[in-house]
Amino acid sequence: MPEGFIPCHGGYQKLLSYQKAEIVYDATVYFCDRFIDRHSRTRDQIVQAARSGKQNIIEGSMSSGTSKEMEIKLANVARASLEELLADYRDFLRTRGAVLWDKESKEAKFVRKLGADKDGSLVSYGTLGPISKPDLRRWWPISSSA
Predict the structure, then answer these.
(1) How far is the C-alpha of 38 from the C-alpha of 113, rounded, in Å?
(2) Entry pTM
(3) 12-36 mean pLDDT
(4) What is the separation, in whole angstroms, between the first and last Cα of the chain?
């Protein structure tokens, strides 16, 4: 079938970047429910950064039929949002005196291995709320009221 005036676009659900961003968003919501006060501005910012990462992948995918430039810009916005989220997680750990894993630590390697699973989903990681492996309570020396 010949390609129409506007080429096929969308299909973001099949993008690995979207699938991983969705896991990051779900895990972030769970993390915030467990560790950050519901009325905290920090919580809003962290969840919004995770959501923005996911949503900009969707928007970029949907705009790809009419503007490759916009698709690339939105992918960069998603990337920047997820980088902001990473900084928020690092700040959370630092301000609570928790350990930031070394890149070569067994915990970091374990999480990277989970993330490398192309068929992974948050559900496939287990049952700690939506997460069991890695069991965050075991690795983070933080009380549940933190």
Answers:
(1) 31
(2) 0.75
(3) 92
(4) 58
User: Which token pair is 80?
Assistant: 């920047």
Cβ-Cβ contacts under 8 Å for 21 (sequence gap 6 or more): 50, 53, 54, 57, 78, 82
With left for phi above 0 and alpha for psi between -120 and 50, is residue 129 left, alpha or beta? left
| Residue with the larger pLDDT of the pair 97 and 136 | 97
In whole angstroms, how far apart are CA 137 and each of 11, 80, 115, 116, 143?
36, 28, 19, 22, 8
Q: Using pLDDT thresholds of 50, 70 and 90, give the confidence band for residue 5.
A: low
Please tell me the distance from the alpha carbon of residue 49 to that of residue 92, in angstroms, as a whole number: 14
Reduced 3-state DSSP string for 75-94: HHHHHHHHHHHHHHHHHHHH
